[in-house]
């Protein structure tokens, strides 16, 4: 259970804050809802308590934990094949929806590396933006920093070195 003020990640939309817990009556039954303010989407989402696990809502990771995930990938020289992307798009969308950081980090790292070496096609750019914004918003909350600083940190964490 989350409380008002908790920092959460709502895959695939990104990180935000629980700003309220509301009770609503639907078909004569009372139900509780979290109201989550998403950081980068400038959007509030209302989510029933009973869907939290199904939607993979989780607490924001500490920056140390986020950094460790990326550091481990660099040392393992993990590679993610982006080709043929159109055949793997559903798989990559599902990774984002599950919200588990290690698989997300593998994909964003591969996309950042490809973007640095060459250019991304339109499908890759769309995927890149979704992954990038989700991770950037989590970094923003975990480090209490602005978007540009979080973007710079993410690029550094994705480097080959």
From TrEMBL:
It comes from the Bacteria. Residues 1-112 form the CarD-like/TRCF RNAP-interacting domain. InterPro entries: CarD-like/TRCF_RID (IPR003711), CarD-like/TRCF_RID_sf (IPR036101), CarD-like_C (IPR042215), CarD-like_regulator (IPR052531), CarD_C (IPR048792). SMART domains: CarD_TRCF. Signal peptide: none annotated. Coiled coil: none annotated. Gene3D superfamilies: 2.40.10.170, CarD-like, C-terminal domain. This is CarD-like/TRCF RNAP-interacting domain-containing protein. It comes from Alkalihalobacterium chitinilyticum. The lineage of its organism: Bacteria, Bacillati, Bacillota, Bacilli, Bacillales.
């Amino acid at each position: 259970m989350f409380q008002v003020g908790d920092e959460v990640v709502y895959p695939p939309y990104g990180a935000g804050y629980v700003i309220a817990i509301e009770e609503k009556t639907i078909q004569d039954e009372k139900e509780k809802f979290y109201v989550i303010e998403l950081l980068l989407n400038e959007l509030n989402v209302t989510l029933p308590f009973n869907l939290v696990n199904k939607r993979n809502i989780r607490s924001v990771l500490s920056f140390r934990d986020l950094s460790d995930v990326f550091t481990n990938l660099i040392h393992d020289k993990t590679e993610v094949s982006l080709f043929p992307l159109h055949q793997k798009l559903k798989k990559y969308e599902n990774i984002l929806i599950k919200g588990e950081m290690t698989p997300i980090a593998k994909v964003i790292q591969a996309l950042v590396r490809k973007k640095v070496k060459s250019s991304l096609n339109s499908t890759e750019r769309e995927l890149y933006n979704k992954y990038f914004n989700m991770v950037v918003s989590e970094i923003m909350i975990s480090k209490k920093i602005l978007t540009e600083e979080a973007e710079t940190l993410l690029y550094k964490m994705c480097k080959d070195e």
